[in-house]
Amino acid sequence: MATLGFLIILEIVARRCAGIPGPLTEQAKETVFAPKPGPLYAGLALMMVVLTWRQRFVAAGAAIGIDVVFVLVRWAVDAKAADGHLFGNGALWVMLGYAVIAVTRRRGRERVLLLKGVGLGLLLAAGRKTGDIWLIITAKTRPTVLDQYVATADQALGNPSWLVGRILQATDPIGTHLLGLVYAQLAVAAVVVALYQLRHVGVEGRFPRHHLVRTFLVIGLLGPGIYMLFPVVGPVFAYGPGASGTGGAHWAVANLWPHTPPPVTAPQPMSYDGITPRNCMPSLHTAWATAIFIHTRKGPRILRYAGTFWLIATLGATLGFGYHYGTDLIAGVVFALTIEVALRSLDRGWDRSGVQLVAYGTTVFAALLVSYRYLPTQMAGHPWLFGPLLILAMASVIHRYVRVTELWEPKAAPAPQPDPRPELV
């Protein structure tokens, strides 16, 4: 009910502030119009964790069959679809169908479990819509951005986006294609990890107390609120030619990225176009990749290696493509760890260590934003002081997180030792 209330509010805000349909309208349209298939089939995969293997095959077959019908009808009437939006309606119809089955044909725990599965799948699909709407709202309602402040503060870290951007250009096309794939398929990696964590739900009849999807959704829910408070478009837009069809050199301070680091000057808010999302502070890609890394630590070796690779590659992509400053990444790590420990504390019960860590992470995150906004010139003028302080602030949150969560892990009971037997004489 809380999620539904939030979606209704966002629907109203989207229509009044940005003049666009909200997530509920966009999701409803996908029952008929050609959708983007990835989020819907990923949601279907998550929903199927509550089903038996036979039911999973039936659900997948039904989704594919419905999609075949939709594709044939569109072909027959010559309906135009966006590039890559050829199928996906079937996955949505199957999830909605199982919601009806849960209400009309299931009872007790089976009904609750199936509704949780359907809700999880629909939330993943709606989360993508919600994120897209949020990004449009940030562009429509925040005409000025604070990139000059963040870029000046980033001088304390040595302008890492400019450095990694040059490295990535030197490795083109291999490095560009590899990091581009990692950056674009972050949600796929999250679904793979989530499916591993939820693999026993159908057998055990219950969800684990905490899993990656919850952290992923909460990061995506809270992050855009920070975008509204601290609108930033990124170095490739504010100091470069733009990307993905938005921005341009005429909107930039100067066309400097990635070969010429920006000069240290007194920063000020700057106007930018009305279509580029203000989605830099904090870096949610970094936050999500951090969450994936955390949730792969207890998996098999190949999953741990994949989580580590995805985190490193995502950091390289966010900087190398000019989408983020180094300061964004530090804020993203602190943001992710604070949300992760808050959700874990909510599940296991709040104790002193959990409250203190959430309060500490929130304080560090707020201090980072305040320093980026009000101390950027001082940070750029004394990089030998503020650069290590920024890294130390992030490292302190990481250290406290590791220490506290290790204390929360259940301790294995020592194996009982057999009573000593008297020696035979």
UniProtKB/TrEMBL annotation:
Residues 161-338 form the Inositolphosphotransferase Aur1/Ipt1 domain. It is found in: Membrane. Residues 2-137 form the DUF5933 domain. Keywords: Membrane, Transmembrane, Transmembrane helix. It is a multi-pass membrane protein. The chain crosses the membrane at residues 58-77, 83-103, 178-196, 216-239, 302-323, 329-346, 358-375, 381-402. This is Inositol phosphorylceramide synthase. It comes from Streptomyces canarius. The lineage of its organism: Bacteria, Bacillati, Actinomycetota, Actinomycetes, Kitasatosporales.
